[in-house]
Amino acid sequence: MRLGIRANLAQFSLLVAVNALVGGMLGQERTVLPLLAEQTFHLTGYTFLLTYVLAFGLTKAATNYFAGTWSDRFGRKPVLLAGWLIALPVPLLLIWAPSWAWVIVANVLLGINQGLTWSTTVIMKIDLAGPERRGLAMGLNEAAGYVAVAATALATGYLAAQHGLRPAPFLLGLSYAALGLGLSVFAVRETRDHAHLEAAQHERRGELTDREVFTRTSLTEPALSSASQAGMVNNLNDGLAWGLFPILFSTAGLSVARIGILAALYPAVWGLGQLVTGPLSDRWGRKQLITAGMLVQAAALAVIAAASSFTVWASAAVLLGIGTAMVYPTLLASIGDVAHPAWRARAVGVYRLWRDGGFAIGAILAGMIADVWGVRAAVWVVAAVTAFSGLVVALRMYETHPRRTGTLPRGTR
Q1: What is the per-residue pLDDT for 332?
Q2: Counting beta carbons within 10 angstroms of the beta carbon of residue 79, is it exposed (0 to 12), middle (13 to 18) or buried (19 or more)?
């Protein structure tokens, strides 16, 4: 047994493919569900419309935490399998939903599915990759997931335009769930022993309790807590894009097909960009990419708030994707740098708890502001919050990549 992407290429590549299916489960909703809320269920209040994002964000955030703890206790593969089993009823609920309550239930299950499966594929790739190429590993993982989000958003937009909002778009999600479960049962192997191998190469240190891991990752350790707040704000942005952007574009008179293009463009650039930014963080370090990425996202959101044409929105979506790509794999890599292998899975779980809590906070914040002052005002507020988050990283976070610092990160000592 050895550490490294090349030494574990077959299993690593399989996990990349599995995470693409995880992303596809999320992508089935991005174009169609806001339109379904407005056109089929006739929801008018933005806050109520965003309840599905709130339900998803709360359950995914909580499940992320337990996924890390359970991965340490029971192993990675059982958690992955549980996540895929929970995914199976999601597209069926969306196809048959007679009321919005069914959609909320589907998004609760989707949040649990995403928390268990995406968290576990992240942990398993960190286990396999070892310390030197963590940025590349996270870039490949997140690229696979978000390219699949984009491709599925585009495909469901096309299917909805040709065949209606239901059932055709959600049949893709059903096929993803079946294939993901099959691969996880028959092909994915346990990786927890790789984490034990890396832990043996570190200085010996006492095990941390769950409470100590939570406190360190959330508040007291500068790099871990800075990453947690930046991740939360990043997904606050994504919750805004998921829930309100299609409505903003629709009120400007764009067709369903064009809304599908815009809904796909941002995660496509985000996903593909991580193939570049993940390895760059191994070369340049983590801090500067995270800081710059948050500021680029803020600028892109400001352009979206001010614009009113497809061309400008498309350019801003590309810019938003670039900024998110700079941040997303780099934050995960920084968590892997600082957290000791003995408690790293739990630290990833806590980080993802805060990060995906951003969906819920974004749904509440954006929905309330949109109800009172309109969608554009909500986008302006989130742009300001994102810029402030970037400044927090610039002032508080230290560089975490061991090759850049020449020492072990503080959290591993």
Answers
A1: 86
A2: buried
